[in-house]
Write a structure and sequence with these properties.
By secondary structure, this protein is of the alpha/beta class. The protein has one domain: Alpha/Beta hydrolase fold, catalytic domain (Rossmann fold, 3-Layer(aba) Sandwich), CATH 3.40.50.1820. The protein is built from 13 helices and 9 strands. A 9-stranded mixed sheet has the order 1-2-3-5-4-6-7-8-9, sandwiched between helices. Helix 3 crosses helix 4. It starts with a helix and ends with a helix.
Length: 310
């Protein structure tokens, strides 16, 4: 029995050592970062905080067209509440994780990136929070790896099955989703967003500070960054009949009633697809929940995390 324990301990230490070799930490200004290498040699830049805390991990997934920068305030506040926080610049946004093929941005790859990053940090279970496309990935992670999640908090985007159905059958959602077909075109969206010193891209960040926009542009001005971000749309068919099915993870959905991209139909249908504790919080906000309604969003997320900490 002692021999078995020694063997187990050896392999555990070996794995932890190997994982630590795949993470390089550094600081920029008042923020801490980690460069994380996953199995297929992609390198993800992650904002991190509170990694020496004793509380559980929280992984934050940004949407389009943002980066982990959108979570800066939430990262700080959650780390002060004893959580260990990791917010990656996801596939296409991290300079070292920007493959060229459209198929490399499928929901399968985006989902597995989250788990591979968690594995590299040696994380067994964690809370997950996602906004916009990050929320879509979060729904997929919640289904495929439900045993890894302590809770899930989705911002703006409802359950993907309900959202897909709304895109096809709800007049209001169809109108709000017109841009998706445009983003799936080749080359033209990149040109549209980059002309006149990225004017049209910057106009999307109507709720962001100039400092936040500057930080976003440090990523989107990189070679192939806009194309890679748009490849998320090109690689995913939201009108597909493939469904992810019922979620069995404690779930919070926060929805801004003035969202320009998401109608209420999919939001109102999401409860039918959750077989776990579920909270829907509708607030007087736009799509940019973190920027426009931070205190409300923060308190809802914090209460949800505390409620499902075990």
């Amino acid at each position: 029995m002692f021999k078995s324990f020694v063997i187990f301990l050896f392999f555990y230490i070996s794995i932890q050592t190997m994982n630590s070799q795949n993470i390089a930490y550094f600081k920029e200004g008042d923020e801490s970062f980690a460069e994380v290498i996953i199995d297929d040699d992609l390198i993800f830049t992650c904002r991190v905080a509170g990694l020496n805390n004793s509380g559980p991990y929280v992984i934050l997934l940004h949407g389009f067209p943002e980066t982990s920068r959108m979570w800066k305030r939430l990262i700080e506040d959650l780390s002060k509440k004893n959580f260990k926080v990791i917010a990656p610049d996801q596939r296409g946004y991290s300079k070292g994780a920007r493959p060229k093929k459209v198929k490399d941005y499928s929901i399968y790859h985006l989902t597995n990136d989250v788990i591979n990053i968690a594995d590299t940090f040696g994380i067994d279970n964690f809370h997950l929070v996602g906004h916009d496309w990050g929320a879509a990935v979060g729904w997929s992670v919640s289904k495929a790896f439900n045993e890894r999640l302590l809770s899930y908090s989705a911002l703006s985007v409802p359950h993907i099955d309900a959202f897909s159905d709304a895109i096809q059958n709800d007049k209001i959602q169809k109108k709000k989703s017109y841009y998706i077909s445009l983003f799936r075109l080749r080359l033209l969206p990149e040109l549209y967003f980059s002309i006149s010193n990225y004017r049209n891209l910057k106009n999307l960040w109507s709720s962001s500070s100039q400092k936040e926009i500057k930080d976003y542009m440090s990523v989107f001005s990189q070679k192939n960054a806009i194309r890679s971000a748009l490849n998320w749309y090109r690689a995913t068919n939201l009108k597909s009949e493939n469904k992810i099915g019922v979620i069995e993870v404690p779930t919070l959905l926060i929805y801004g009633e003035n969202d320009m991209a998401i109608a209420s139909k999919g939001v109102d249908e999401t409860h039918k697809l959750i077989n776990a504790p579920y909270t829907l919080k509708k607030i007087n906000s736009t799509h940019w929940l973190i920027q426009d309604s931070y205190e409300v969003v923060y308190n809802e997320i914090l209460n949800h995390l505390k409620k499902h900490n075990d």
